[in-house]
Structures
1.
Amino acid sequence: MIDLRGKSGLLIDDIPEMRSALRIQLADAGLEKCDMARTIKEAIERISTNRYDLIVSDYNLGQGADGQQLLELVRRKQVLPMTTAFMMITGETGYEQVSTAAEYSPDDYLIKPFTAETLRSRLERVLERKAALKPLFQQLGAKGDKNLALEACATLITTQPRYLTDILRIRGQLLMDLGQTEQALALYDMVLSQRATPWAEVGKASALAAQGNSDKAQGQLQHALETYPNYLAAYDTLAQLVEKTDKVAAQAIVEQALKVAPSTQRQRRLGGLAMENKDFARAEIAFKRAVEKDRTGFFKEHGDYAGLAKSCSEQGKFAEAMTAIKGMGQHFANSPELSARQAAVESQVLAKAGKTTEAKAALERALAVHGQSPLDPEAALEIASACFANGDSARAKNIIQAVAEDHQENGGILAAAHAVFHAAGLGDEGTAFLETTRKNMIRLNNEAVGLARSGELEQAITMLQAAADRLTNNAQVAINAALAILMDIQRNGMKRDRLNKAHAYLLQAHRANPTHARLPEVAKLYRTLAPADAAPLQIG
Amino acid sequence: MEPLVATSIHDIKNSLHALSSWLGEAERQTPSPALSEARSLANHINGQLVQLLALYRENEGSLRLSVDDRDLLSFLEELRLEPTGRHDGSITVTYDLASADALGTWAFDAYQVKLILADALRNAVRHARGDVRLSLSTPAEGGIEFQITDDGPGFSEALLSGEQSAMSTSGSGLGLRFARLIAARHRTPDGRSGELLLDNQGINGGARLRLRLP
């Protein structure tokens, strides 16, 4: 049995009476070292500065926020390590949303009312599980290595058979992340041959889709949802698949998922799909909910206000649109991204309202920020939309090309880039344009690798360095730049300044995509060539 | 927003939760059988409200089970902590956990199934002479089966033949209807579903309740 006495905990609840009652129950159970947080803000501060063994959070946290959103936020930003247990306390309504949570589930949940004995037994169980699977959870965080995590799974299956299901579930996800879809599919089939369970149904569908069998995957998911209508991961995965071919159907699926669990993230997704489907009234409602429901400000994004403004303006509600743009400025801290985004959205609204001169002026303001500071892809694409709205399609395409080249391997950003074309009524042209960009990037990489192979290493290095210095989010280019340099060292002898360059490019690639399939191989080459006193490479 | 019936049930449940906490606090300060009985009753009322809500939602077409994997051993150990009534120690409740340990996990709606089993246990304890047993097995046709048996007089003929809908003549039949509904709503993608089976093949001809989940 785990002794709770030495453990440190954090209790999150917005209602003072509930907090003190639960605090007493936790102390009775042995958890004496326990911090408390009243709000999302306090909780995030505490989690960011302390390392806890256990977090106990109520589902309802007031201000339109809930514990599930908090969990998703801190896990996604990797502030909360997987070695820390997260337990959710929930009433019956929250239970449906917590127990079937999609991507980030709590380690356990407890439904009110519960007795002190039940609480104690749950706490012990969840901490026992965290301790037993520690070698695995350690490899699942920001500094973890997915290949080592797979190895840990293999070991733990024999040493901790009690947690077989947990291990298989994580192993399936790891195999998918690492692109080993054959093995993932085999794992899910093996589980399903023994019993029916929703996670393996969804996992199997994802594996089928990854192998290009999208129709079969969709059928599998639709079938699974008839059996498990609350299983959110099935809706999310199905919407993702359907979105590629039928955005109207995808919108309907997200609507269904929202009935199960109304999260800000799903409202945003619904708003985006409704915009693409030109269902502006629905988009307005969705973005409005995203903006209004979360009064903590931790879960909404610039894009929610931008979406609200644009959906209003498309319906001729220009005053509401301008209010939304103002709201964006009031709710977020000042940054180049914010001012560029505000100006770009304003420009689109003004253009729609027929105020050509003012629209141009706003666009110039956005472009001025773009020229001065590097922007995130969302803000850059907003400026591209504004360019289209002002009839400057050449400039729009320049911006989109830069974004697409930089984020060539990021499907989400490429889809957003296409949506910009689509909104401008240029969907087909956008498809062709992005395809050309993709081919150009492949050609650049192939040409450089070809040059390197035929001995023209200097030329290859010059070409790839130029590309890697321009496209800092493109892991592929950075890896090839490092490879060309390392090949040169291998052939022509050590040059320390070049070795340092290769090191820097590998770090750049890791920042852009830590799980890039070719990263381990080139990192290995670096380690082989680097002398003992060179900078060590703590990646891949 | 859910209609008045559903939101009212939630309100009542919240008050009940507060009541239960106060009773727990009182029991901590001065333990007494009466307080323990009162807390057990508050728990029972909470369960009935949940059952009522489920039946209401079924009527509205909005009842959806939350099925996911659950460790069977920890599930049954927690069920054991539920109050079953009759605190005089005259009834022995035996839990056979061996197969739960061997089976590991199963996918089901643990919240609703726990209510069914807690209710069935309470009922068995009320009617038993001295023995109640709970066990888990894997029937030949697949799935898992929770079985609760007692050594009482058994279910009435009227109940077994379907003429009577409640486990006791005074009851409303809420618990039984809920159990049948939740059992049937457990389904698998290949079309199997759960069921509730009642007969008098318990201990010495006593009642036997079997809950099968696919």
Note: The beta strands of chain B are 68-71, 92-96, 105-108, 131-137, 144-150, 195-199, 208-213.
2.
Amino acid sequence: MPWAEAFLNTQTNNSENLADSNERHLSYTDALHEALDLALELDKKAFILGQGVNDPIGMFGVTTDLYKKFSEERVFDTPLSEEGMTGMCAGAAMNGMRPVYLHNRPDFLLLTFNQLVNHASKMHYMDEGHTNVPMVIWSAIGRGWGSGAQHSQAVQGLLLSVPGLKIIMPSTPYDAKGLMLSAIADNNPVVIFEHRWLMKQNGYVPEGIYKIPIGEGIYRTRGEDLTIVGSSHAIALAQIALDSLAEEGVTADVIDLRTIKPLDEKIIIESVKKTGRILVVDTGWAMGGVCAEVGCLVAEKAFEYLKAPVRRVGLPDSPTPAGFTLEQYYYPTSEKIADAIKLTISNDK
Amino acid sequence: MVKYKYKGQGYSNTDINKYSKELLLNLLFSMIRIRMIEETIESKYHEDQMKSPIHLVIGQEATSVGACAALKVTDHIYSSHRTHGNYLAKGGDLKAMMSELFCRANGCCGSRGGSMHLIDKSVGMMSTSAIVSGIVPIANGAAMASKMKNEGRVIGVFFGDAAMEEGAFWESLNFAILKKLPIIYLCENNFYSVCTPLDKRQPASVELFDKAAGFGIEAKQIDATNLLLVYETVLEAAEKARNGGGPTFIENVAYRLRGHGGAGDDSKSGYRGLDEVDSWQNICPIHTLQNEMKNHNLIDENTINDFQNRTQLEIDEAFHHAVSSPNPSEDSLMQHVYAD
């Protein structure tokens, strides 16, 4: 197993404080490309597949030209058979391979639920741990003008209640690379949701292999007035919102979950005990998703510390509209988050 | 009414002298053993101690036994919910199977799988699915792994006729042909999906194997009450797959003599004719091979009785083992949700 050794040989770093060194910046997509390149180099059992991975666009640039270096045996385009290919990945993973299956849009993951939910996530349990299913499913939330109800969905909430799955939602290039490597090295099925709006972002990315623990969140900022919990693009919006209230003296603990399953309950409860207020932000629907789960967790395990009601900013309970104007009303914005922050800190019980 | 008639030729076109007596005895005994195990399960099922939904293979044993015998020990099989025959034919441990049916901690899946998930990886019974056609893409992945690792391992996957009504089946067939995967698709056509006959589900004008052939795979339809036909056909397909020749589809036609699930035959409910069931009783795969072997002086009643007596002891011991085994503990509930 080359992964344990590779991580051992690396100084594990769970934060981005090294960014001060300012040495090496990569774009989000280049960071992901580098992760895949390293994984293919390190582990002969790893392979990459997906519809479009070898086309000129190369999955937003994440897989561009990898097949030239590693052959079309290990990096290959697939038929549009999402369920069949997901099951194929599970079967290969159950036999020692480490597939990474990429999708342009998470909407197509809905075609794979039979294999993802009924099979891949349950095989380890159903045969009493004799079989591992080390596979990675990656997809990019395709928010953009006109993407509409079937090309922009953030379906993480639907998968949150599936035992046996791990779900990753990175927010920085550093995390995108580190979490991808952790996901490929993990012995369970892991789903990664990227957000298209993060892909042009640049940030500090160390060379080589490093690991970010799956199931642990991180404080992005520390403050006193409230706790803001989220992941992926929602964290970027929350930061802008918080910055806009800086002159008013508002400070917050901003917790980037990094992985929404397993959920880092410890960091959330720890922070809420200190601030007494929580706002959950997510790129998905507020109902029944990350917002609902984190909100419930706090109500269940930190109720006596709450000074204000739990608040959430997610998508309204409607499909995504296709038109530009309606989109503006639909999506959470930093302004909406700023309003929610103000409400949370002004409305003590 | 007999809607689905037997269309085979029995053993009239089979040269039984081609095979060693030892092989023939093993094949016959394997079928008899599976039948006896299932009949014992059936006789005790009403006691409600085996709290697991069973799907008996009675009438279709020749597919399990013939296919597994044609594969190498190192080859792997994957199965639908109708697992008993495949598990036992591949060499799965009987005691672990019975413990699983009795929901005991030492069952082959630690009571996490039940009858529809009998798995014994030590003998190559790798995985199963209770979702129709769910195991087919997974078996494809196993074949992909075998190919990528250059293992020379052949994968056999068992599924019913209704699996060919699921999209994932055709997605898998397409991919296996595209990548020349070393896999054998073992369709067990017993004409019924639960109580719904084939002609209510698929147009009768096209045979199952013809549809598969339309995708570009070598496809055959065989009389799967004739064990040696199954054996020969799978042997040839495995040889081809091992030599890089890609996948084969085999439609194994044999009748399900019991209901879809549970003990006994449920034909009285009227979904199929009692005369149809009777007509297939006469061509039970065990009796036809046994008679053929008797006709060639390869076996006699005493040998069969001896084997049955020994097997009954083995079965009794396995049942005793299961019922005297511990139940799983509450603190084990959350184990194996995630792998380390």
Note: Residues 11-15 of chain A have pLDDT under 50 and may be disordered.
